[in-house]
């Protein structure tokens, strides 16, 4: 250190003014273009070379009143124009002087405070960087960051500046002020008004690990301090971005208040700025504050445009978006419908803006769980965009994507893929392969393959999306994090939990750094991470992640939001796995209350919570409560998703297992008031599905003569049932119905030949039982997905994927017993010296009871 004053003293505002005047006097033609480095070499060094001292030492001798304890540490880039830097210091000092409790300002400004004739940092120990420097900034108490240009701030690329900012932020009690030159202030305000996304994108550029320094030694020492003391580059990036985010919001809000103070709060320009600021706030997850600004904008427009202007429509649309983000879908729909009415009246039905509003309505209804209405509006949007913009326009692709999402949620996965691929073809042709929208579409296609259980193809699509996003948006962008989350989900369901956790942690690190700890996307990453830990059997880690997600959702979206409810659901599931059923039911019931209030009782997400509660009651032995909740779930699934959706089938299987065969169709029919002819149609459909199952058996396995015989008997029985389905619904009597009761799980109302067929099918050792289950590892509690089937050599075979030869096999001849355990949630298959434990998988098409029956029947056959 050059002397004891170097990190404690500062220079006065008058000293800054005098230096600025000297600069203008000596370089009248070039001072406006000189950088700080130029001023150092051409003015400071010549003046101090003879004494080999810092500029402040000469100032102390000549005018000691202009040197005193520093009150503000100046952080700036030496590539800045010196005139801009000095002007910012003077503007800052003027603002400070206008405050009631103002104190004289003395700047610690490295150009003046360091001896520019020597390398003053060359021999400083590492401790100086990690401890002394930080303490000195704390002692000064205020860091002033000179930021320019705002769109690509130079200090955010300089190691020294990032380190100075971080030291200021991490010192409790140290104030950090970000200051722009006046010209940059105006440019920022203009951009907030016209291109608010450019403001939020600036934050993504902070990457400490890519920062540079003029002096390689300084860079090395700073990087060492970051890694060893500051918690790593991620911690520094996050801290700086949090500070910039707060500043960005402050500038946006300040721009509105400045216009209000000028008396311009009744103008369209003011309303436009309020709308833009609302969008900035919404982008940062501040939905309530965003709504307030949108409403202010709407009120101004309503006074000037009489409820029919284009700006009023835009404001309604913004409010719809904000309420959609908050999970208040009915309010969102109300604003979208107002937007639609104005747009149709002013621009006509066949206009791209009308199509855009139809798209928004589709999204709101999709979020509500009304997929048919969503499809209706997406189709309207698609027809308009094709007619007005053509088939090869990105807006046409957007409508295709909307339809894909809705069909995906309905369980019509092949139709979803068709629309996504149509959208992809348009995106590639119109925008190119390397475009964020193209990446979004790869993501969507991957999500459908994920839903189909084709995880390898899903991963292939997600990898393509990731490559595009990294190239176009960067590694540290929230959209890149989303793709890491998707990849994690695919590896998660493949059973590769360690890889899933690594990907989820990448996504979490990016969202925390880019958006902050208190952001819904960060909560989503915590939720995903919790799910992977739960699958690994590390329930305490899972619960810790879920609780972090819950706290963030409650703070950012509110306690009454579907995402908050989903996290309560996750906590409930984790406590079920831990065996803490009291805590589980408490969290499930909290989730249910929120979903009923926000989404309504007839929403698939609400139904899933009913289903979870029902299964938990079953586990606890309360069959009556279990049946009631699962029945309610089944009713909603059947109404909203249709009878063929996997969730509907899963609920039917569970209800049949819990309540006993025959109760499902009868009770469901009475609940839904389905007509007799509808029931007959459902029976025919059920037979048709079973027929397909038998036919697939005949294809997959080389049928023996008895199996072919059975298949022929089934075809005959189906013909008879089809004929009976044509008879009047009131044929037969109650006595006959009771006499022909069910057996072996055959639904009530089936003909005698069909019931005989069911009975034979249950006994048939060649029953084509095949599909996904989850198997517990031999030495750990984690359950991993596996594809199970009976092979031709008398084994229960299982492997990691549906294609190829299963590598693991359980000889049925060695099985001692196969039985359901833990309330039917687990299947235990015992062989000498070991018990194999299976659970249902999310994509299971058959129940554990089916597998148990089939295994026992095969054991009986082989013995």
Automatic annotation (TrEMBL):
The TPR repeat ranges on this chain: 313-346, 355-388, 397-430, 439-472, 481-514, 523-556, 565-598
Residue ranges annotated for the PH domain, each copy included: 767-862
Entry keyword set: Repeat, TPR repeat
Organism: Salpingoeca rosetta (strain ATCC 50818 / BSB-021)
Region (Disordered) location: 726-746
Record has Repeat as a keyword: yes
Name of one Pfam family that matches: TPR_12
InterPro entries assigned: PH-like_dom_sf, PH_domain, Sel1-like, TPR-like_helical_dom_sf, TPR_rpt
The organism's taxonomic lineage, starting at the top: Eukaryota, Choanoflagellata, Craspedida, Salpingoecidae, Salpingoeca
Name used for this protein in its record: Tetratricopeptide protein
